[in-house]
Amino acid sequence: MNLRRLGAALLLSGLALAGTATPAFAHAELLSSDPAAGASLPAAPKQIQLTFSEAVGLPADPITVTGPDGSTWKVGTVSAAGAVITAPVVATGPAGEYVLDYKVISDDGDEIGDKVRFTLATLATPAAPTTSAAPTTTTTTSAAPTTTSAAAPAAADKPADDGGGVPVWVWIVGAVVLVGAGAFGAVWLGRSKPE
Fold it and tell me: Whole-model pTM?
């Protein structure tokens, strides 16, 4: 009789682990970044590169870089090649700590994200334009805040990302499996008792 109870307990434990732990490993993880987390750079980078543990997809506005004064860098078209995403950037801002905020879509369809912090040792300024290109540069610069302000309300409407936690549906399925297994075990143990 004790062997049956031990077997039922092991079965329930195995089902609980299989129902809750396995999906947690389905999310992509950031393996490396350029600039690296905690790096101190002598000059601003020309591009951002992130490498993940699996191929990822791109949501809208997957990368933003914010400086110590609250200004954001202009991020060019972000491209994904399997597990690596790359984006050209135009850096502007003072020396200090910068925050690279990224969002990607894992193979299971969940959006995950995190932050990478790095430091610039010097002032970041875009390349000096020629005299004839000055009005064009001014127009482009004034257009950048419009794009940023238009994207800000859309980002505010999204719920904050939990950093890739287990989705709610996994907990629901796990609870149903556990309740079903417990009911089956109770019936099985109840029938096997001698009268």
Answer: 0.55
